Structure formats: structure tokens, C-alpha cells
Amino acid sequence: MPLASLIIPAHNESAVLPATLERIADDPLAASVEVVVVANACTDSTVETARGFADRLPLLTVIDTETPGKANALNLGDEAAQAFPRIFLDADIVLGPGALEGMISALSVDEPVVGSPAIRFDLDGADRWVRDYYRVFEQMPYLSEDLVGLGVYGVSEQGRQRFERFPDLMADDLYIQRLFEPAERVRTPGEFVVRTPRRWADLVRVRTRVDRGNAQVAAAADDLESGHDYSRTSSSSVRSLVGLVAEQPSLAPSALVYVGTTVAAKVQARLKGDQWGRDDSSRVVATDATAVDSHEPVAYLVSQYPLISHTFVEREIEGLRRMGTPVHSFTVRPPGALLSETMRAEAARTIVLQESTGALATAALRETLGHPAAVLGALGRAVRTGEARARSRVWQIFYAGEAMRLLAEMRRLGLRHVHAHFANSGADIARAAVAYARSVDPDGGWRWSFTMHGPTEFEAVDRFDLAGKVADADGVACISDFTRSQLMRLSDPSDWAKLQIVHMSVDTDRFVPPAEPRPTDGPLRILDVGRLVPEKGAPVLLDAATQLAEQGVDFELRLVGGGDLDAELRTIIAARGLSDRVTLVGPVGQDDILAEYHWANVFCLPSFQEGLPVVLMEAMATGMPVVTTPINGIPELVKDGRNGYLVPPGRADLLADTLAGLASDPALRHRLGVTAREDVIAGFALDACALAQQQFLDGIGRPTPTESIG
């Protein structure tokens, strides 16, 4: 008999279900828990996605029903389940470490109890009003004292006897909670993560659904015949809010947002009736059936992901998911330091190819036994691919092995297209996987593409086999016109149609100017964000800072980032007496980086080598002028004298002069900053760039125009 039964109702959840099931499959108790996924009225690949976990969840049952509705799905799953405790989990909820074990332990009692782990709200990327709302909401008594639900709850065997079937209600969690007295509600060990809406309008939509669901339960109280009180408690909520503000006066502005949101939701609830109103911005999946059908799921492969220097990949994936493209993330190596909630959430749902030697070996052995000739062909391609050096060809053999693991996961998830970011090992593995897949399944629709960033790869075109990758790929997204031009000079003109321009992006709803205007007096506050590596030119900035100090310019400088030059830069700062003006901050995650931009009133990036830096976009989006170098793709973003200044690389003297001029002219800084934000919104906003990438991906395998699509 299983230790417990876990029931997951799912309607068009192919984009979010993998992360949910991955966490369950990785749990030490996975082999002992019965998992029942009920796919109701799905028009996407939810059923195939769930069945793909059969080898990792031995007690998995997948029910495919054409009847829509969560209540019906819950009842079907409940009827199929065999064990207690019985846990009900929404398909977009990721359980934290130990949460499953904690629920099973706490609910395996001979008493009628209901319970759920602690809730944690993922606010990464949320706008200010959404953050204000949850700042109050998470302190309300309902949430802090007796909450059961919001995505997951479980009942003991005696607790399950409190009701016969799930009624046809939106708020099933409220219905279950009110069947139990406060003393029968258990906060189980561990936590689960709820990703909040990103924008206030989406938050209102969610709260409208909640309010409508609560009203529906209250209205149906007589019909439920449970003997429990389902009345709503608006008056107690008001008293709690007043008391909370009285204790914490600083919450007053947030409380106003909370009240405004609540009122807006109640009005919308009256107008919208029984509409479900699911929030796509937080669930990262399209609910419109035609949208799901028109955007095929895609595997995203990066050599290391998440990574602090690859936040633009996070944004692109987020934008694609929000617009209806199911994205399944893969990384060759384990992720770097997880410095934000988004990074932690992405790491939880990302498959690591090198994580398990056993998985790599199993995938390679399965292919060798099933298709020995094709495997020999793959090895033959490996030793003929890439730079003509023994070491490089040996690495290609390793990549072929990792390609087998990638292919196994793509088959499991029903994926036929893999897109790699960067022209490094990720692209090598994607190329090898698709070449092999085509050899054993020539009509399978296998294809691959990659995003070309540069400039590192342009210094070693043979090592990265750029011409070969362009020739083999089905499409190449170039982040700038400069990047595209460099690939054009390396590739055959017949391949130029593959090269499309898709810019990196910035979330201009999150990266906004500070609430209070930047100061016009006091020291010039200079900010540099980037790795402390030679190509970023930090020593040049310190040379300019030295000259500013000698000229008597009042300034402060903060360098955010880490890298090999850290010790050398600290030595220079101390030797030149700049310690009271210059601070090496170290790496900063996305949760905290906005505060750095708001601190500064000019951004400086004196690089020797760049692609098209996203940090420039972030700084400009906050209404700040930038000073940088006119290299590679930067002039496509920064217009000298319009939204910032371009200074020749390596010229500390000209850099110091430019910064001194900005220090003495606050009005100029303001004018440049206003234009900077306008220009970023016009050409590099998240939604526009995500749409361009979506169009690029949708066009892979079809004829593509030579013009830019982004």
C-alpha cells in the first residue's frame, strides 16, 4: 500500500506540470507515493507530459477525461486513489524540500485533520503595487493563522470522511478548510511556492476569482449540508487591517493598495459572474486552446543556467511562457549561485544534463542497443565536427553522449525543437542531438536553433565552429545587427536567410525610475554593473575615478559584480586613496539590483568587448543616462548625446571629462535619462522582444525573411 495518494487536477498545464512532477520525482519518498494526474479537457500535451514521468514515478496514474472542470477532476482522482493521507495539489505548485514528507507524517493520524505546508510568495518581477498588496496580505490573520490551501492541502483518513464528493465550486480549498475547526487545521513542515501575478491588473483578476469563489461557497452553504459556517468575514478583515496599520504605520501606503485591490476585485466579481479568470502571468501557460496549438513547446538549452550573468535568458523564457509558448529549460552544468527567487524557481524546474552519470550512461546504452549503426554514425560525426584539434574532437564525443541524454528528455516531454543560447557547448549538444534524432527518425520534425551573442566567439571562430553551426542550424537569432553582420562574413550567402535579429530585453514594468527624483546636489553617484574581468574595462574606470578626484569632482562609485580582477582592483583602490569613494559591492541578484540603479544618477560601462549589454538596458529603463564605449552592438542602443555618451574604449581621460560634465549639469542628466527610458521602451521592452523570439521560434523549419523580426 502506498504511503499516501497525491492528486493533481490539470487543465492545459504542459508548461508548468514538469516542474511540479520533477520535484515530486526527486523526493526520497517518490517510489512510495501514489500520484494521480487528472487531465481534464486538455488540448495541449499535458497527458503526454504526465505519462513521461512513468519511469520516475512507479505509482503514477494518468487519467484523461474530456469533461472540463476542476471539481470533476478532483472527484475522478479521489475515486482512483487508494491511500491515505490524501493530498490535493494544483499543477502549478512546486513543493519545497521536505514538504511532501512533512504532510504525510503530520496527516498520518487517527484523527480528522487537514493541513498544508507554509506558503511562500515568489514576488520576483512583480510590479510595485503587487508587492505592496502582498506586503499586507501575508500578515493578515487568515494567512498567518489558519490558512489551508492556496494550491495544496491534505486530509487524514478520518478527515476525508467529512464530505462525500467535491461540490462544483471554484474555491475547493475554502470549502475543505471550513469543514474543519481551527484546532483541526495543521501547519505541516516545509513550504510550497506560489508565484504571484506580475502586474496589478493580473492581481485584480486573481482576486476577482477568489472573491467570486468565496461568495459562491457562502451562497451554496445551505445546499452543502455540512453544518459548517461558510459565511464571509469582511468585518473581521477590516478590523485586522486597521490593527495592522496601527501597529505598523509604515504599512499605510501598502494598505491603501490592498484596499483598492480588494474593492476592484469585488466590483469585477459582480460583473464577471462565474468566469474562472486564471492568471497567465504567474502560471506561465496559455489557457486559450488556439494559442497552445499555434506555439509548439521548445527545449531551451544553456551551458549553465540559471546564472547571475544570464538573467536575460530568464526574462526571455518568462516572456515566452506568458505568451503561450511552453518552454522546458535544460542546462549542461549545474546552476551557479542562486541569488534571487526567480533563479531558485528556475533551478527547480531545469533539467541538468550532467547531474547524473547514471542517466547519461543509461541514455547512451539505450540508444546503442536500439540503434547501434546510428550511434556509430553519431560518433563519426563527432570526430569530424568542430576545430581540427584532437582535444576538440574528444570533447565532441562527450557532447554526443550528453546529446543522448537531452534527446531522451525531449522524447519524454514530447519536444521536437531545441534552442540553445550562445554558440558554445550547449549549441554543440543541441546540434548533435538533432543530427542523431534525424538519423533514427527522419520524419520526426526534429530541429534546432541558437541565439548568437558574441563577442567571445568571434575571437575563436574555428574553435566555436561558427560557420558550421550556422550551416547546420535551422535558424539563428542574432542579438544585434553587428552580431548578424559578423555571422554573415563567416557563412555562405545561402545561409543568410536563417539569421534573424531578436534583441535581448528588459522588463520596463520592473526596472522603473525611483519613486523620488534622483538628487541634483551632492556627489555624482556612478554605478558599474558587470563581471570583474578584463574585457569589462574596470581598471579604466578606476583611472577615470582617479582623475576625477584630482580635479576635485565630488563623486561616489559602486562596482557591482565579481570576478578575477577583484583583488587587483582592491589593491588599486587602496593605493590611490579611493577607499572612501569607491566600493566593490560584489555580485547582486535580481531581487536587489534595482536598489543599486536607484542609488545612482549615472551608469558607466567602459568595456573593451561586448555584445549588447542588458545592464545598459536596465540602467536606461530606470531613467538614468549611461556612459559607455561605441563597440560591437552598443551604438544600436546608446545614441551619443541623446540618451547617454559614447567614449572611445581605453580613454580614461575622455571618460573622466564626460563624467565631470554630467556631475556639473543635473538638468542634462535628467534630460538624457528621460530619453533613455523612452528609447528602451520603444525598442527593447520585454513583451515586444518575447514576441519577436516567439515569431522566430514559430518560423523554424519554415521559409524565413531576411529582415529583422525584432
List the helices and strands and how they pair.
Elements: E1 4-10, H1 17-26, E2 33-40, H2 46-51, E3 60-65, H3 70-80, E4 86-89, E5 94-95, H4 99-107, E6 114-122, H5 128-137, H6 141-145, E7 152-155, H7 157-160, H8 172-177, E8 185-195, H9 200-219, H10 221-224, H11 234-247, H12 252-272, H13 280-283, H14 289-294, E9 298-304, H15 311-322, E10 327-333, H16 341-349, E11 351-352, H17 357-370, H18 372-383, H19 390-413, E12 417-421, H20 425-440, E13 447-452, H21 466-472, E14 475-478, H22 481-490, E15 499-501, E16 524-529, H23 538-551, E17 555-560, H24 566-575, E18 582-586, H25 590-599, E19 602-605, H26 614-621, E20 626-628, E21 644-646, H27 652-663, H28 666-684, H29 686-698
Parallel strand pairs: 1-2, 1-4, 2-3, 6-8, 9-10, 9-12, 10-11, 12-13, 13-14, 14-15, 16-17, 16-19, 17-18, 19-20, 20-21
Antiparallel strand pairs: 4-7, 5-8, 6-7
